[in-house]
Amino acid sequence: MFRTSLYTNLTLIAAIIVLAALPPFLGIYYGNLVTRLMILGIFAMSLDLLIGFTGLVSFGHAAFFGLSGYILGILMMDTESASLFWVLPACLAGTALAAVVVGWFSVRTSGIYFIMITLAFAQMMFYFFNENTALGGSDGMFIFSKPTLAIGSWNPLDLEDHHTFYYLTLVSLVLSYLGLRQLLRAPFGQVIQGIRANENRTRALGYATNHYKLVSFIIAGTLAGFAGFLEAMHTSIISPAHLGWHESGAAMMTVILGGMGTLYGPVIGAFALGFLHDWLQDVTTNSMLYMGLFVIAVVLFLPRGIAGLPADIARLLRRKPPTETEDEP
Amino acid sequence: MNNEQKKGFSRRTLIKGAAAAGGLAVASSFVPYRFAIGAQAKVKVGILLPYSGTYAMLGNSITDAMKLRIAAAGDMLGGRPVEYVAIDSQMSVPKAPQNTSKLVDKDSVDFVVGPVHSGIAAAMAKIIGKRDQPIMIVPNAGSNAVTGPLCSENIFRTSFSNWQPAYPGGTLMAKEGHKTCITIAWKYGAGRQMMDAGAEAFTKAGGKVIKDIEVPFPDVEFQAFLSEIASLKPDAVFAFFSGGGAIKFLKDYAAAGLKSIPLYGPGFLTEGVAKAAGAAAEGVRTTLHYSADLDNPSNHAFRAAYEKATGKGANVFAVQGYDAGSLIVQAMAKVKGDTGATADLIKAMENANFIDSPRGPWKMSAAHNPIQNIYLREVRNGAQKYLGIAAKALEDPAAGCKMA
Amino acid sequence: MSLATFLIQLLNSVQYGFLLFLVASGLTLVFGIMGIINLAHGAFYMFGAYVVWWLFGYTESLTLSILLGVPLIMILGFAIERLAIARLYHRDHLYQVLLTYGLILVLNECQKIFWGSDFYSVPVPELLSGSIPLTENQVYPVYRVFISVVCMLLAAGMYVLIQKTRLGMTIRAGASNREMVQALGININWVFAIVFSLGAALAGFAGMIGAPISSVYPGMGDQILIISFVVVVIGGIGSIKGAFIGAMLIGLADTFGKVLVPDFASMAVYATMVVILIWRPQGLFGQPVH
Question: For residues C196-232, b (16+ Cβ closer than 10 Å) or e, as one string?
Fold first, then answer.
């Protein structure tokens, strides 16, 4: 059962209030950065559903993130403006379809093979766009205009405006979190967590585990597509590198660093990594060296991520050794 | 065995580490350049270039030479001291909007110098072209679009458009009596544009391109394609690769016994790699807007100064960086350091004088791309040998640019 | 395609297959036998190439440089295993992915700091610089034949080591049940450390012996990393024979992909992998997973 303590809930509410109050103080750059980190937070959260709750380690999750951006790019190619109300569903449907195909074949494998087959599918998609000259090849493509929320002549929100987009992203983040939380508390969520804890036992209880894993994979892929949609709208550019294994790896890193199996952890991870990178850029030209050392240190010394830190500290104070893997998150 | 290799690891690194306090080598060490305090308002030059990964050499060459040029002006731009803000682009398009925003919105730089990668150039141009400031100077990325459909008042290029070094190569092949050729390049923007330009010129001069081979980027396994070339027996091969890929292509081409089919290409095929490719590169003829052995006083002076500062020989990328520096120095002198006078600044940059560029005289086109000589070079004894001018004062067609 | 062209492309496929097995050989041990997802495999490969180039500057002999260089990479691998990898054996694969991802970043920066960002190359040894005529205008370099031979010896050597020797049995047993092997009084930690450093050394060796034909440049490790995983996975984790056949299959898919479907050449490799994994989820010669 996925539960959050009162303490956690209050902290999350406080965090949302802070994020909502921030924009006037951020300036354009940090406004953009926080917007992007919230988007990456949604992306990482979607991966957490797979890694942290279903026990499926996907090494190709960025494929869905990028694919959605490409669908947006293709839809916006020959049009001056399009309505968000059909563009967004189209992107999500396209991504979901891809997730059905990839998931269908992938969930039959497990362990290392699952990691590798998701990687292979992602690489295929990467090369598909990388070599597709009509879509800009390795340089990628532009999204010249953003979809609008206009209905007829009435336009409730101007998405070109930085602040508006910031709040749209924030709302998306909160809704994604609440949606996943509900999902995990529903019977479906309990089954997939059962799969993670012990797939054989869950199967023995009469659940078609592959079925559940597939649905989880599709939900995660679609949500990643939603994040990719926001990212493409935000930066107006999409490239094959968005689908590459480096991005998939970075997403995994975000999940672990933040704390997998918590949903909010990956968002913390996205912010921690984002601001760390931002700071390293300012103080050194070898930022990747320190980034790498940081990742290694986290893996070795902080296996439960930042979200697990309070619990780790509490355990330390009570002088109990921390358990490294949890069966029930 | 050459000196370059002997110096290799130990000595150069030690010197670099020890001398990190001064000189150009600083670029690669731990320096909190953002914390310098200055009484006078500094001119901020933002740099977005690769300092890691396959193209780090390009980023370093460009940066070193640009700093060299600005240092020669006393590190002052129009009477104001200069401050650099450098970001490693990591050749990452996904990170490009964020990095550009950092330079433009957070650091409020007056100039942005970059990038190497055409995809990043497009991302930058998209952000910067919409505004009045800063001014963007492209010191490498050759995408035709940058001074084509994406061209803008405040975007300048001191390097080349992909069309420029390739087009004369096609003409040259035909002129040297070849009737058929095969084009081979990486399947990405720059490769495509260069092959199109070369093929266009070759066809126009009466030649025929019998096959266009696109190698998946950045794959370096050429064997299957070399066998194809051998079986099709063209009169000549027109190729574009760069860096490590170029070395491997040249070596594989020679090792497959194909040297009987003359190899041509845009100069990047042999630029900076001729020595490493050794005998395999001998005799390869290329066209480019620079040749290391150009006999003009500015080139000699530049090469000597660059070697003194970095311990390395200058290449075409360094020249492009040097001219980017020159462009900033000249324009800032003209407006007496007033970066707010954007219109005047742009005008000054359009009229900047490159009579003493190491690559020979050139000037800005209406689309803000160099109108420059393209030289014919041949690799002899591991170095470029200048053979003559392949195209004089060549201007990019700038298709799609509203300013041209 | 004429018969002659077909045969030549077949030769190219096999040759490329050998090269792939060579670059994947280290991963076959580390990932295939020990089950560690080592993304730093490419970085070891790159380090090998740089080290041999650096040593060549002093020794001017490829053989000598390789003999000196292999132990260096082995020490590097050993240190990394003891300091970091060793702490992850009882954890999820996820952590290996991340840790070695971090290692890539660190090792790439080290390469930049040690050797700079220029492109280098190492000449082919005089003795092996000849070529064999193939058609009227194409020849085959002897050095490539030499690499194929080295690769065959390597494959045979590894097969014997893993399948026939006591050490090999210990390694295989240790990979499937650490505690059991430990209980038998074998210091499994040392065995794993040795195998990991052997894997690193093999990756480095591939970079070294390949340096004369592939040139030495930053980021070269990235080029071979994913394809190495493809080779091992197709063959089936834990099988040297599988990795060998996997390499040959990829060599074929890549070469004929380039010739027959040039627009989607690089997808051909991954499509092959996907098809094989759908057909046999445990790879061609892998043990079925439970």
Answer: bbbbbbbbbbbbbbbbbbbbbbbbbbbbbbbbbbbbb
**pLDDT score for A22:** 93
- Taken in order of first residue, the domains within chain B and their CATH numbers are 1-31 (no CATH), 41-160+296-364 (3.40.50.2300), 163-288+375-394 (3.40.50.2300)
| B33 has a pLDDT exceeding 80 | no
Chain segment A52-92, per-residue pLDDT in tens: 999 999 999 999 999 999 999 999 988 777 889 999 999 99
Instruction: Give chains near A: 3+ CB pairs under 8 A.
Output: B, C
Residue B330 CA to residue B78 CA, distance in Å, equals 8
Domain ranges of chain C: 10-279
CA gap A156, A145 in Å, rounded: 17
pLDDT tens readout for residues A21-43: 999 999 999 999 999 999 999 99
Average pLDDT on B373-399 reads: 94
Q: Which of B213, B224, B251 sits opposite C255 (nearest CB)?
A: B224
Q: Does domain A6-252 have CATH number 1.25.10?
A: no
What ipTM was estimated for this complex?
0.90
CA–CA distances in Å: residue A120 to residues A117, B37, C70:
5, 51, 31
pLDDT at C211 over 60: yes
Interface test with A, best of B49, B63, B95, B105 (most A CBs within 10 A): B105
A225 has pLDDT over 70: yes
pTM: 0.90
Chain B interface disruption, residue of A123, A235, A284, most B CBs within 10 A: A235
Length of chain A: 329
Residue B229 contacts residue B261 (beta carbons within 8 Å): yes
- Residue B72, classed as helix, strand or coil, is helix
E strand map for B50-154? 76-77, 80-88, 111-113, 135-138
Does residue B195 contact residue C226 with C-beta atoms inside 8 Å?
Answer: no
